[in-house]
């Protein structure tokens, strides 16, 4: 057996693991990263990046289609066509360029990458099955970054017809009829994209609203757009398996049963931390339910064993994993760091997009704050009008006594780009006066953030 030693072993090369590896390497720590699949993990290969490539394609297609039906902008064109196999090839090329980029960054940081599935034998030893046999790696520090996998429903096992987001993002033909089980952000992002590409889409959601993590006011413009796109949404409805014709059997809360005709059934009912198959049982790790328990420094219950990313809890987002990875590498290198983030912004790349950072009004009240909440609509924003998208608004939640901003939310076209401004305001402890007093370039959609702050102060200028 091949034997290797290092200061830091990173198990898993997703956004959490590869960032931990790069930062550890930059800090001069002798680091080995073990990856059994592809560098970049879920996010780069089958998650964030591929889904956004599809969403971009669908949006462009939809825009051309709308222009072909007549547009006030004066543009007219022939109806578009789509060759999904080409879209997939284009998406695969982006993924492959980014894979190469990550490999290059790890190399530059002098991180050794061992390709193969690793199994922890104890808190310091990992045995990796590589193409050349087994390699045993001994490390002083281990960073567990094994990520997550799509949740499979027992009544709807994944196969040719029932697929997870991974298979959906490699389809080379647009399904005629698509049923989506789960109305969270992944289901809606893909459901809306495939509707725009021509599928007849039905969304089946168990709770009483789409995007159940967000408040109704924030999700209403998305629901309106879905209605406009003729996406059927069945709320308080549960998927029950396939009927004898292979269609999706569903049942409502009140017990009404029916079948939904579908060529593909996309199941997006959440992600589960990957705690199997890498030797968790050989370790003595405390768990928090299904996740690995970590403290404020991402340290587990075992000495010098750290855990980051989706395997450690919600929100399962790439930027959380990356921030944790960077922090842990710095702690191992001796820096005094701990998790002191005020917010992890969350974005749904739906149509329109939804972004949320910090507390909602309800959360702020539940935390005992007396709050001022103000909202500025995009229909009063000049830039939104010139972009043919006046849907949505920006909302700001602040403490009533000292005007400290507690949360920012927005829904509208391309508001994902506001997420950094929101997070920065919260991290820097901005007050309403700071945002209201900052000159925002005109005409931009970000002016709605300034206007929301001014409105909270009682003197919005454009409404
Ligand atoms: P992962 O990315 O899951 O990486 C874990 C890696 O570990 C994998 O490469 C795996 O092969 C490897 N591994 C596991 N076990 C072993 C082992 N035993 N040996 C060797 N290697 C191993 N998040 C966002 O922030 N924004 C988005 O827009 C977004 N869109 C998404 C869209 C979809 C369709 C999906 C499915 C997810 C999306 N996410 C998004 C979530 C995001 O992909 C994850 O939060 C992120 O990838 C988590 O990073 P991670 O490093 O914890 O784990």
Rg from Cα: 24 Å
Ions, cofactors, ligands: which are bound?
flavin-adenine dinucleotide
Tally of helical segments: 13
- What's the helical proportion of residues? 25-40%
The proportion of strand residues reads: 25-35%
**Class from helix and strand fractions:** alpha/beta
What general outline do the C-alpha atoms trace? globular
Which regions have little confidence, pLDDT < 50, spanning 5+ residues?
A: none
Layout of helices and strands:
Blueprint (H helix, E strand, L loop, with lengths): L1 E10 L3 H12 L4 E5 L5 H6 L1 H21 L15 H25 L3 E4 L1 E4 L4 E6 L2 E12 L3 E3 L11 E2 L1 H4 L8 E5 L3 H12 L3 E5 L11 H13 L3 E3 L2 E6 L5 E5 L4 E4 L3 E4 L3 E3 L13 E2 L2 E2 L12 E3 L10 H15 L13 E3 L4 E6 L2 H6 L4 E7 L4 H5 L6 E7 L5 E8 L6 H9 L4 H5 L10 H10 L7
Parallel strand pairs: 1-2, 1-6, 2-3, 6-19, 8-15, 9-10, 9-15, 10-11
Antiparallel strand pairs: 4-5, 5-6, 7-16, 12-13, 13-14, 17-18, 20-21, 21-24, 22-23, 23-24
Helix pairs in contact: 1-4, 1-8, 3-4, 3-6
This protein binds flavin-adenine dinucleotide.
């Amino acid at each position: 057996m091949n034997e290797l030693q290092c200061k830091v072993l990173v198990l898993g090369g997703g956004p959490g693991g590869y960032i931990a590896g790069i930062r550890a390497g930059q800090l001069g720590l002798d680091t080995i990263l073990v990856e059994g699949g592809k560098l970049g993990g879920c996010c780069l290969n089958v998650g964030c990046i591929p889904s956004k490539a599809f969403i971009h394609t669908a949006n462009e297609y939809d825009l051309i289609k709308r222009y072909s039906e007549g547009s006030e902008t004066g543009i007219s064109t022939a109806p578009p066509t789509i060759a999904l196999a080409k879209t997939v090839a284009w998406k695969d090329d982006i993924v492959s360029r980014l894979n190469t980029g990550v490999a290059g960054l790890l190399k530059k940081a002098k991180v050794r990458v061992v390709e193969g599935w690793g199994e922890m034998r104890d808190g310091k030893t990992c045995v990796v099955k590589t193409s050349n046999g087994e390699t045993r790696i001994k490390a002083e520090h281990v960073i567990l970054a094994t990520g997550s996998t799509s949740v499979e429903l027992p009544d709807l096992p994944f196969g040719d017809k029932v697929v997870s987001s991974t298979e959906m993002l490699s389809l080379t033909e647009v399904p005629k009829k698509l049923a989506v089980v789960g109305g969270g952000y992944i289901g809606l992002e893909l459901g809306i994209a495939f509707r725009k590409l021509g599928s007849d889409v039905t969304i089946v959601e168990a709770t009483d609203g789409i995007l159940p993590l967000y408040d109704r006011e924030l999700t209403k413009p998305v629901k309106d757009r879905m209605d406009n796109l003729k996406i059927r949404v069945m709320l308080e409805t549960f998927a029950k398996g396939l009927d004898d014709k292979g269609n999706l059997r569903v049942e409502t809360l009140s017990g009404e049963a029916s079948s939904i005709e579908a060529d593909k059934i996309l199941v997006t009912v959440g992600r589960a931390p990957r705690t199997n198959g890498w030797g968790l049982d050989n370790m003595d790790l405390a768990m928090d339910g299904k996740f690995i328990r970590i403290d404020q420094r991402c340290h587990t219950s075992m000495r010098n064993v750290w855990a980051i990313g989706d395997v450690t809890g919600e929100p399962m987002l790439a930027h959380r994993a990356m921030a944790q990875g960077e922090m842990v590498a710095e702690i191992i290198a001796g820096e005094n760091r701990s998790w002191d983030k005020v917010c992890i912004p969350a974005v749904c790349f739906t149509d329109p997009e939804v972004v949320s950072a910090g507390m909602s009004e309800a959360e702020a009240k539940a935390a005992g704050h007396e709050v001022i909440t103000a909202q500025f609509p995009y229909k009063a924003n000049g830039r939104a009008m010139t972009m043919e998208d006046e849907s949505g608004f920006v909302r700001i939640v602040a403490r009533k006594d000292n005007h400290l901003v507690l949360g920012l939310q927005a829904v509208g076209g391309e508001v994902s780009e506001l997420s950094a401004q929101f997070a920065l305001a919260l991290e820097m402890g901005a007050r309403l006066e700071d945002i209201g007093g900052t000159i925002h370039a005109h005409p931009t959609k970000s002016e709605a953030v300034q206007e929301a702050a001014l409105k909270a102060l009682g003197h919005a200028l454009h409404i």
